Amino acid sequence: MSRFLLFILLFQFGFSQQNFHEAWYSADTEHLPQNSVKSISPDKFGFIWMTTENGLVRFDGKNFKTYNNNNRGLSSNRFLYLSGSIEKDSLKTFTESYADNIIINQRTAIKTTQNYLLNSFEEYENNRFYLNNTNNLQTDFFLSKIRTKKGDYYKIEKNRIILFDNKNNKKKVIEHQHKPNDDYFLLNDELVCLSSNGDYIIFNYFISKNNKLDLNNINKKIYNHLTQQYFICTNKEIYIIKKATNKLYLSLLHKQDKPFTYDIKCLYYDIKCNKLFLGTGEKGLGIITLNKFGILTNINSANNNYYATTPFLENTFLTSKGEIYNKNGLINDLKLNQTGNQFGIAIDKNQNIWIPENSNLVCYFHKTNYKTFKKYKFKSILSTIYCDSENKIWIGFRKDDAPLVSVATINANDLNSKPLFIKSLDEPVNFFVELRKDKMILSSLNKKIIHYDKITQKVTKLSSGKNDIRSIFICNDNKIWVCTYSNGFSLFENNRFYKLPIDKSSYLTSAHCIMEDNEGHFWISTNKGLIEVDKKNLLNYIKEKSPVYYNHYDKKNGFLTNEFNGGCEPCNTKLKNGYFVYPSLNGLIAFNPEKVNKILPSGDFYINEVEIANRILYFKDTLKVDRKNNRIRIKIDFPYFGNEDNVYFEAKLQLNKNDKWVKLADDRTITFTNLPPGNHDLLIRKLGDFSTIYKTKQITIVVPFLYYETLWFKIISSILIAFIFVIGIRLRYNYIQKKNIELESTIEERTRTLIKTINELNSTKNNLTKEINQQKKLIGTISHDIKSPLKFINIGINNLEEKSKNIDNIEIQKISNTLNNSSKSLLNFIDNLIEYSKIVLDNSISEDDFVDADVISSEIINLYKEIAISKNNQLNYKNLSNKKILITNKISKIIIGNLVDNALKNTENGTIDITIELKSNKIFLNVTDTGKGFTDAQINYYTTLFNNYEKTKFNFQNNGLGLYLVIELINLLNGDFRINKNNPKGSRIEIIVDSKISNY
């Protein structure tokens, strides 16, 4: 092994991608008001301030805000440099010729009347500014006073340097021979004197001799007096001077392959974020993110798309292409697997390399330095391979066109052994992992997770549901985690999947694979970058549904692509030196998780700015708005220079009890429209880094009530309404009382009138009773005086008819017969008329009046039978319902008799049919003849008479009395009356009345 290691070291060559990300902001990108950045510094809260020739600019990592004559009423926009104190939150600046003086306090710029004319301290800062912004400027710091952050100051004299406290008392004096070209500056409040040849002294360690910095090829020196950072620039590099063990040294911050194409005017290095801010004379602001991620590629290959990798010798790793890398780059290329896929690689205990090539498994032998190999051929394409602790190679296959597949194993200790197929594992396996020495866990392309006991050979298959598993990870405490193609990642415990929440941008929907660092953080690769999460956060979520913080890394951290690769085994590699290796679509990402600069959103946030009607207003804890402008936009200030995907803001306006937290968009603004009047609490919270703790702030939004919405207005209005109501009731009471008096008088008058009317009605009733009695007497008289003689006449005519039968004279027989029938009809008519009069006078029908219709019809047919025969007519009757139908006796006789009589009068040599039928609880009586029939005028007349009985006057001269009696009786029964023509001749009269049925 040592010989091979020496071999690969002798032939080491490599290429490592530059580990920085560069971003530029300028007037061309509409971020800056002008491209010349002259001075740059952070404030106490972490915001970056810079001066330009067209305004003062504040940068929070996302948004730029410009202060100029448009919003600060300045007479000039040409700013020079920043001075003052970061720690005391009192940065200062001024415009050209001190036309405007600005103080930067509480994250905003305020115009002040304070005069910033140069004093002895500001003279040093003024010289520093021009020294930074002008090339080859010679500045003499003789007699300069250089103030520390604590308020003490150094004074540079000809032969000495004196340290004074803030009360001008001498604290310390050292001998020093001043030279005009010497540079004096502070590092951590200690004075340093640096000569042009690199010699230097430190005030508190002046005894040290032979101190020197290598300043060869120096292009420019830039000092940021506010942050006390001293930078050395070459044409390709930027160094910063640091101090350690009382010595100074140059630390390389940034290096690029080509010379700088811009003039650097000012610099600021954010140590916490590992970012270098460059102010230039013509290109605007540049931000260089100095990353700790190494991007490894093979400079000799056009294809840097990587999948499976595995640890190799010492701190190297091997790709499935046969390339050997360490953390710095490629050291050898064994050129293995030139045509096969890259989805699997394994190294057995004997250092043999196993690589699948489609349906073949190739073993490259360590003893021949991987020049020779053995090939195992299979019928199915291999999907993955794995080497367990017993030096056994596990092989999974794709199903593809093969009807059946099973897992195979090869004993790597005996390369002559043949593959052994485990028939009980009849699944297309895509990932193996060894849980214990005796237990394997497998994932199937059929969405199953499989437990396999090596000793008992017991197989347990469980459905993975929606989890299309692409990798399985067993963490340090033996918990099992699975990553999927489309369902995020989950904890698999007690045969159950506990799905974890995904990040706010949903990058974790497709999770490739996981590794765990020494702090218990997971690093998960995705198609959109690398994500770090605290395992404790995940477990707390499963228990308590507490929030989870995800820290996202992408191309801004130096990656060549955001798309990491997965679906391979192993899908990541951990080296002995602590480095992690992940494959991507363009290169291998190698890093030590303990050294990665994590730009975390742990700082404070501020809410004191609102936009109303296109105007920016500022407030503290309470925001008062008017009702004219119903749309407000509250802005959150948060200085953060990392990935925006790592910032989690939520807000809740407490209007109701069930109000929920709402995630805010990346612009960090909250917009409200038409807020109801009142005092409303707005809660805004930010999730802390790698924790479940929120930092919450509250502001009160005061929306004034309109005058008619205020409490006093409602009280006064209620009192007024109550008063009007009482007055209205009183007026109404008086009105009703007056009306009652008038009504009582009216009632008395009407009562008298009513009594009079009742008396008149009683008198009328008595008269009517007398009249009815007289009519009854008249009817009785008619019955006695007319009906009795008619009976005797009828009897006489009947006797005459009987005797005429003995006379041999046919004419006399016919006349006597006709006289007999006529007298009977007349007598019947008189009976009907009398009965009609009684019915009308009594106006009542009793239960005893109802008789069988068949009986009544038979009586009438017998009565008119002779008349019908005399006119050569047939008289027929039929009950169509085949059941007993009850009809009124007297009324029905009158109705049917008159209808039959009328039909007989108008019919000769014809037929008269009487039918009765019961339908829908109605009686239908029809009398149909084949006689002359009714004319249209007669039908119209009788129909009108029936429909308008009370209004139509009956014409006795032109029309018979019989139908009139029929119509009046039908109206008395509330029935219906219809006259129709009978085809081909004759008439049909239909009468419909309510029935009284007796069922047998």
Automatic annotation (TrEMBL):
SUPFAM superfamilies: ATPase domain of HSP90 chaperone/DNA topoisomerase II/histidine kinase, Homodimeric domain of signal transducing histidine kinase, NHL repeat. Gene3D superfamilies: 1.10.287.130, Histidine kinase-like ATPase, C-terminal domain, Immunoglobulins, YVTN repeat-like/Quinoprotein amine dehydrogenase. It catalyses: ATP + protein L-histidine = ADP + protein N-phospho-L-histidine. The keyword Nucleotide-binding applies. Keywords: ATP-binding, Membrane, Nucleotide-binding, Phosphoprotein, Transmembrane, Transmembrane helix. It holds the Pfam family HATPase_c. The chain crosses the membrane at residues 711-731. Its EC number is 2.7.13.3. GO terms for molecular function: ATP binding. It comes from the Bacteria. Residues 781-997 form the Histidine kinase domain. InterPro entries: HATPase_C_sf (IPR036890), HATPase_dom (IPR003594), His_kinase_dom (IPR005467), HisK_dim/P_dom (IPR003661), HisK_dim/P_sf (IPR036097), Ig-like_fold (IPR013783), WD40/YVTN_repeat-like_dom_sf (IPR015943). This is histidine kinase. It comes from Flavobacterium helocola. The lineage of its organism: Bacteria, Pseudomonadati, Bacteroidota, Flavobacteriia, Flavobacteriales.
